Amino acid sequence: MTPGGEAESARRSPIPAAAGVRRATLLTEDGVPIETRYEPSLAGGGLSTGAPVIVVAHGFTGALERPALRRVASAFTQRTAVITFSFRGHGRSGGRSTVGDREVFDLAAAVDWARALGHRRVITVGFSMGGSVVLRHAALSARNKPDQEEEHEEREGRTGAHTAGADAVVAVSAPARWYYRGTAPMRRVHWAITRPTGRLVSRYGLRTRIDARGWNPEPLPPVAAVPLIAPTPLLIVHGDRDPYFPLDHPRMLMAAADRASTELWIEPGFGHAETAAPAELLDRVAGWALARA
Q1: Are 166 and 133 in contact (CB under 8 A)?
Q2: Which domain range does residue 38 map to?
Q3: pTM for the model
Q4: Cα 192 → chain centroid
Q5: Inside any domain, residue 229
Q6: pLDDT tens for residues 214-234?
Q7: 149 pLDDT exceeds 50?
Q8: Which residues have CB under 8 Å from 49's CB, separation 6+?
Q9: Where does the pLDDT of residue 141 fall: very low under 50, low under 70, confident under 90, or very high at 90 and above?
Q10: Is residue 184, in this structure, part of any structural domain at all?
Q11: How far is CA 255 from CA 16, 125, 153, 219, 248, in A?
């Protein structure tokens, strides 16, 4: 993975907190340009102090400039620095969406940029599709399980990204398994992904470009990824009014996880992902992550 020129200069001389908002185009390990934005903490604390940074992975059809993601970033910057980006096929990033497969490269590029900027502690927070990506990224990171890297490569095939892992991981509204069609919203999502007409609607109506080739090989399912994340702290957050994924999804993830390093929050009244996350929940998520990173 080779970040853009801005990240390269950051490697040579970490930026001070006062430098403010920065934008960069990062090049992923498989050659896709990803639009990225860095925002310093409004609570103070410079990079020289080893202050942490939260890297936010949005849900399907989200993007860096979408109001929901900007609201999440605004909430998190009250406590710490934040990096947001658009997954491939979304916003101004290049490529086409693989709906959680090769997106692990996009997150890896953002995490590597965070460390290049001087942050020694990196927290990944993913919503919905982004939640599945942060789980796989953490499981695949050689930093977490160097003795199992070869096994991960074999199971993941071409998406075994090489990157330093996160110091804490939060998955919000994430699926536990692939191909779930048990709710009307997820049946609409599958129509948008798998049908030519659906992909046209996604491209022009939702501004999301989808790769028509599908998965080959199939990526590691989230429920198979979570056991590999320990001992990195993991938080699973899910709403009891999620219209996409019912509560068996977070419960499956928790059942597969290491209970010594994992917490599950079932949030009353919460719907789905970043569009429904209230400010109070975002603040608690940030507090949990900063305490454990």
Answers
A1: no
A2: 22-144+163-178+219-292
A3: 0.87
A4: 21
A5: yes
A6: 898 999 999 999 999 999 999
A7: no
A8: none
A9: confident
A10: no
A11: 42, 20, 24, 20, 10
